[in-house]
Design goal:
The protein is built from ten helices and seven strands. The protein is α+β, with helices and mostly antiparallel strands and about 260 residues long. Helix 7 (about 175-185) packs antiparallel against helix 8 (about 190-205) and helix 8 runs antiparallel to helix 9. The model is unreliable at about 240-263 (pLDDT under 50). The longest helix is centred in the middle third of the chain and has 27 residues, at about 145-170. The protein has two domains: about 15-100, Arc Repressor Mutant, subunit A (Orthogonal Bundle), CATH 1.10.10.10; about 105-235, Tetratricopeptide repeat domain (Serine Threonine Protein Phosphatase 5, Tetratricopeptide repeat). The strands form two sheets. Strands 3-2-1-7 form a four-stranded mixed beta sheet. A three-stranded antiparallel beta sheet has the order 4-6-5. It comes from Nocardioides jejuensis. This is SARP family transcriptional regulator.
Length: about 260
Amino acid sequence: MVVQDVHPALPGTTVHLFDGPFVTITGSRISVPEGSKRLLAFVALRQGRVERRHAAGMLWPTCDDQRAAGNLRSALWRLRGAGIDIVASDKWALELRSGVQVDVIQSLEWASRLIRNLALPTDLTLETGRIDGLDLLPGWYDDWAVIERERVRQRMLHALEALSTALVVVGRYAEAVEVAMTAVNAEPLRESAQRILLEAHAAEGNWVEVRRSHDRYRELARRELGVDPSQSYTAFAYGQQLGHPLRVPGQRPPTSAPYYSRG
């Protein structure tokens, strides 16, 4: 069952949650009333029908049911009063009107294509909005917002790692390094991101950068976590691939380097 939507949104209507919330309609920006921001964000992130009682309970958890329902009605009224009539509602539920785009959902779709190895040629770029996905709705500490922020952040980090790998495959090494560094800067202790950075440097033949990055991460992990990087990470950094010998710190390198096939 879906909410009956007899008034589809105007073409070009987008809900912006990165650096928002705000709404654009055919390029014109409309500010969302303060008392309606959480309602709009909550509904936009659900991608479908939301029970009114559930929404009211999540958005006003300290209120009783009657007060929470009243707050929800007020938030809807303020939203429509600001010229943002993009939430369809009936007695039981809410959802965005058909045709409304959400920037977060667009970024998550981009991320999914990369992660599933279904990226289009136009996906192999890192736009500013996609970096914004690493910090969705900053300063919002509602339980649902914290969970959504971490969910989106994890998806975007995986997408950045996949994007760097895809850029290496097509020989765009400089961009691959930049994307990997974006992931590392977002989460310096994330070993998978650090490994992707090593692979991007190695693909370009910059083994000095590989080892420098490895040593920097090793010191960070020891200082912050009291552990060393994994053995596979260190093995890669010290020459297990791309025709370089395996060398672990403290060992003498062999006199000649064995060949390791990429296949």
